[in-house]
Write a sequence for this structure.
């Protein structure tokens, strides 16, 4: 297999190519007119610039390099398929965009082209109360869906930190992770099947077998997982059938304080391993996170100095079950030296975890002055036993960066259970980044740090990403190392399904599937 | 335009009509980097917001509105996810009751 290495040192490669020429843009719009109404084809600067980025910090002086040529807002699978078919025929890149809340640039049009914004596909097509499923357009948000489902006592428990603003289709494209996945499963478990537009414009239905509402089939390859978590490089999900649960009768979310990290870590593991049926997750806050929260968070400013680490656990279910499970978890916490932090902080902090994107962010210079910062979040999947070592190594990487510049601020770490047995944790380090000062030199330093962070996760037997994906500069360099022979299979699949490399090109090093960087050829 | 019935201070406060709205309770230092005015209203120490980000002046009603809106939002989120919230203090009390030996009948 021919391998093309990235041009130039890490962090210096251009993000994108030039915009379409006037002639090609005119031809593209002319081809789209029979498929879409005028108000579904957006050409205004504001419409395009607003769909050029995601929340993950980047060098904002290079914003203009990633602006799409056209934005379309289809309302049906047929329209999406027609747009993709046109793009494939004209060799113009297509980038699906749902909530635009992803943190690994999946929705960023690195090669410009057409952004397919699915937000108008937000219908509830069918609610099946007997089989407990709902079929929706992928442009619907989980929060809006659950407002409708609550009238029937039902609940779709896919709960990312962007819960109010992320959309079902984006969750499929990233194979998302849910805060309460230890109780209900993550996106891959909750989506039963979906309609999917391939890079050629063909429409495929993927699920277990061919069923729309089947949760387990052994017929053929398990294609559903292949078409989840591809970051838009294999097509666009348009209509999905989801598994539903009874809306929980009760919630319990105690927060406990510890005077040292080791006891808090041990307690988190014990809570997860307890086998409590209503257990929906546990979260470990390290010393750096507590120190960060003491700066500005009203819940933590008043905490005594001997609060050095925190643990939260959350349970959902029927009231009698939650009470019984809660008592068991409280006893476990007590055995590990925990102090209950009180109802106000426990309930308030947990409720805020569903909506982290609404938090105004700022950090500090080394001399303590407040600066506006954006939020970067690493999200490795790490085994419980490796969490302390990974934490130490990551903080050292951040400390080294901070010694050099005020552009970066260590906001501490969380570790969230990914599964009820406590086998692995979404291990998160939050980094404040002063985007306005993120020049090319600082960006290159950040890309190197990201690569080092990813390497630590791999060295400890983990995966670089439990939730976001691994598309960004720095981390993406290590994807072939993480996946091994599996990365070659990714290239084979990409080349087979997207012969012209039009679907979200420039992501996951997939240009290598074509033996060269095909940027110019695509344009 | 500033008039005599308006408070002195940053110009951002000038457009508001009621002078008393610009007099928050005296700040109380709660940590090395934070102070509090109204109950539950914490603010960054103003000395830390002098270079890159300047503190804004809010009338009291707006400060309280922001704080209460936050509480409303969190309460809404609880109701959205479950019919009721069981408090940890209830569970602790139950554990305490169960661990307290029942005196033998007289």
């Amino acid at each position: 297999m021919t391998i093309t290495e990235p041009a130039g040192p890490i962090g210096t490669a251009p993000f994108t190519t030039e915009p379409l020429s006037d002639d090609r843009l005119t031809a593209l719009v002319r081809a789209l007119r029979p498929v879409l109404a005028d108000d579904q084809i957006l050409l205004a600067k504001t419409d395009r610039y607003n769909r050029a980025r995601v929340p993950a910090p980047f060098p904002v002086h290079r914003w203009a390099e990633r602006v799409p040529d056209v934005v379309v807002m289809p309302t049906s699978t047929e329209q999406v398929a027609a747009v993709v078919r046109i793009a494939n025929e004209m060799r113009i890149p297509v980038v699906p965009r749902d909530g635009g809340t992803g943190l690994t640039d999946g929705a960023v049009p690195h090669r410009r082209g057409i952004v397919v914004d699915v937000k108008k596909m937000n219908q509830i097509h069918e609610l099946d109360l007997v089989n407990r499923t709902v079929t929706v357009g992928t442009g619907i948000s989980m929060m809006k869906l659950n407002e409708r489902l609550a009238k029937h006592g039902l609940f779709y428990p896919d709960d990312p930190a962007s819960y109010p603003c992320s959309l079902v289709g984006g969750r499929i494209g990233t194979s998302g992770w849910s805060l309460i996945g230890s109780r209900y499963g993550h996106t891959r478990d909750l989506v039963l099947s979906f309609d999917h537009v391939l890079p050629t414009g063909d429409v495929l239905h993927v699920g277990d077998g061919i069923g729309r509402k089947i949760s387990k089939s052994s017929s053929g390859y398990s294609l559903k997982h292949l078409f989840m978590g591809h970051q838009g490089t294999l097509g666009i999900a348009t209509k999905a059938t989801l598994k539903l649960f009874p809306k929980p009768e009760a919630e319990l979310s105690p927060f406990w304080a510890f005077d040292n990290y080791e006891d808090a870590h041990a307690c988190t593991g014990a809570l997860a391993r307890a086998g409590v049926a209503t257990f929906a997750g546990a979260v470990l806050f390290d010393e750096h996170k507590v120190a960060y929260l003491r700066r500005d968070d009203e819940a933590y400013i008043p905490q005594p100095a001997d609060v050095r680490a925190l643990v939260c656990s959350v349970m959902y279910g029927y009231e009698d079950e939650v009470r019984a499970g809660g008592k068991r978890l409280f006893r476990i916490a007590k055995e590990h030296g925990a102090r209950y932090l009180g109802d106000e902080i426990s309930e308030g902090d947990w409720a805020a975890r569903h909506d982290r994107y609404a938090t105004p962010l700022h950090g500090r210079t080394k001399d303590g002055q407040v600066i506006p910062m954006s939020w970067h979040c690493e999200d490795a999947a790490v085994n419980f036993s490796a969490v302390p070592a990974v934490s130490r190594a990551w903080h050292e990487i951040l400390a080294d960066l901070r010694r050099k510049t005020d552009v970066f601020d260590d906001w501490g770490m969380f570790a969230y259970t990914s599964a009820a047995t406590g086998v692995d944790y979404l291990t998160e380090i939050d980094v404040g980044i002063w985007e306005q000062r993120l020049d090319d030199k600082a960006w290159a330093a950040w890309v190197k740090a990201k690569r080092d962070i990813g390497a630590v996760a791999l060295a400890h037997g983990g995966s670089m990403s439990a939730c976001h994906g691994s598309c960004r500069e720095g981390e993406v360099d290590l994807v072939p190392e993480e996946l091994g022979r599996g990365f070659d299979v990714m290239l084979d699949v990409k080349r087979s399904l997207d012969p012209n490399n039009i679907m979200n090109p420039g992501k996951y090093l997939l240009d290598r599937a074509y033996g060269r960087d095909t940027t110019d050829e695509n344009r | 335009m500033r008039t005599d019935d308006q408070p002195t201070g940053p110009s951002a406060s000038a457009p508001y009509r009621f002078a008393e709205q610009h007099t928050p309770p005296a700040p109380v230092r709660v940590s090395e980097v934070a102070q509090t005015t109204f109950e539950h209203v914490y603010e960054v120490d103003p000395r830390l917001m002098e270079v890159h980000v300047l503190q804004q002046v809010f009338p009291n009603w707006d400060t309280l509105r922001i704080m209460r809106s936050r509480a409303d939002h969190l309460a809404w989120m609880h109701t959205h996810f479950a019919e009721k919230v069981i408090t940890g203090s209830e569970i602790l009390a139950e554990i305490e009751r169960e661990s307290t030996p029942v005196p033998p009948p007289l």
In short: The two ends of chain A are 24 Å apart (CA to CA).
